[in-house]
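Problem 12. The chain below contains 609 residues. Write out its predicted structure in token notation.
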Amino acid sequence: MKTQGQMNRVFATERVHGDRRDWHNLRGMLPFLWEFRGRAALALGCLILAKVANVGVPLILKDIVDAFQNPQLRTLVLPVSLLLAYGALKLSASLFNELRDVVFARVRYRAMRRLSTRVLEHLHRLSLRYHLERQSGAVSRDLERGTRSVSTIMNYLVFSVMPVAIEFTLVGGIMLSRYAFSFALVTFGTVAVYFAFTFAITEWRMEYRHRMNRLDSEANTQAFDSLINYETVKYFGSEDLELKRYDGTLAEWEQMAVASQTSMSLLNFGQGAIIAIGVTGIMALASRGVVSGAMTVGDLVLVNALMLQLFIPLGFLGIVYRQIKYALADMDLVFKLLEREPEIVDRPDAAPLQLREGGIRFEQVDFHYQPERQILHAMDFAVEPGQKVAVVGHSGAGKSTLSRLLFRFYDVTGGRILIDGQDLRDLTQASLRAAIGIVPQDTVLFNDSIHFNLAYGRPGATFAEIERAAEMAHIRTFIESLPERWETVVGERGLKLSGGEKQRVAIARAILKRPRILIFDEATSSLDSHTEQAIQQTLSEVAADHTTLVIAHRLSTVVDADRILVMEQGRIREQGTHRALLEAGGHYAAMWELQKREGNDSVVVASDV
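Solution.
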């Protein structure tokens, strides 16, 4: 366990690194501002005009007070011009502040939009390995906080930090030009001490915020996972376990939150004390000046008004600085994600797939997810154009890995995969995937209408084509029997549909895509025997003019294949037609007999690697 000294050194190192990251992330915001640089400049101009008008108000107020002090004017009506000027300046300050808000709104919200879109685009570019390893709940919460932080930082910089900086400059200029240097010295000294105190304490407190963020994401992930696995939680009666895990994480978060709030109270008191001392010092100097006759009562009012205008927003600046630091911590999560390089990228000279006949060739393909666990060993086979090749084997043999490699979700670690003689690594991913259609074993649908999920196969398809694909997949009658028909919402991940209904949607979607190469990954595993027979006929018709790779657990679904590959532990043990393999009396024949004895036609085997 680390000692307190070691922990302090770790935190100090993290703070130094964090400072570098903060500046790096602030620079990363510049491209999002550059699009509306004209608007940003106009907003800055409105801001300066608003502050000039704001600082001008105390100057007019001084003249009004001094007019009352003049014996010659005591019996006269207060000069109307001063009142009009006072009102005009107040109105101008309000007008230019509102104009600044209106002009800058487009900049702020467009930056949020651009960043959100860029993050989603980058997430889609990241490889399958990242998405299998990520925690959806934590990513969702981090992205929400991160994109919101862009708006927060812009909002504080334009509406809080810059106004105070401009006002401080104007007030400092008035102090130096009108009064003794001691006034400016006290003012600048107070601000300097205030900033130093605020920055030092806030940096110390940031570790609490980082821990709160981590624990918040962890708690959100636990809640998200327990809800996704709702049925599993109910199967095992684990509600109390899930609540205990969730509450335990929130208990740690609570400790950090209380420590953060306590330290914030210390910070607020210190800031208030510094401002009180500074204002008292300024008023003491001004009062002495009035008594000595060096200053008028109007000067006393002016100095007091300027100090209030400066120190009131300065009091909020401490909060603003903390919020900016928190927002930068949140933003860092997003920028780190954007800096993550995709595992699979197109080569600079990658070319679109030139699809001719659709022949597939695996040449001595080796593959592993982790170096210590080899999945495929020297896989060597071909699927000739228009041919139907089936891959069978026990769970864990590596069958479904073939489809992932064919889609180039991963790159092979040895050998190569060719389509019409073209190495997949030399092709653009978009053109490769456009040529392949798949019916996966585990079909996940969008939380949208059935029509949307079907049309996803080819967004430009006509409704008649969608109806035809649904009919071929034997799901049109079911859809038209629903109260909302094609506009029926299927629920998150398609949970409102049965496994068989989802699989038929996937089949219709693949039919609609009209690819040259088809992959059926246990495409009928969730169907009853009667529907499976009808669908098998449909799949045979669809595959007639396609190069087809069938990954199967139930051997009865691949008896008509042109060639069957029998895999075991990542290697091809046997290959041939159904009849030839039975006659050979090897692994395939043993599997066939086993499935006949178990009545496998009514059994759904566990999913494969």
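Discussion. The first strand starts at residue 360 and ends at 370. Students who got a different answer should revisit the alignment rule from Section 12.3.
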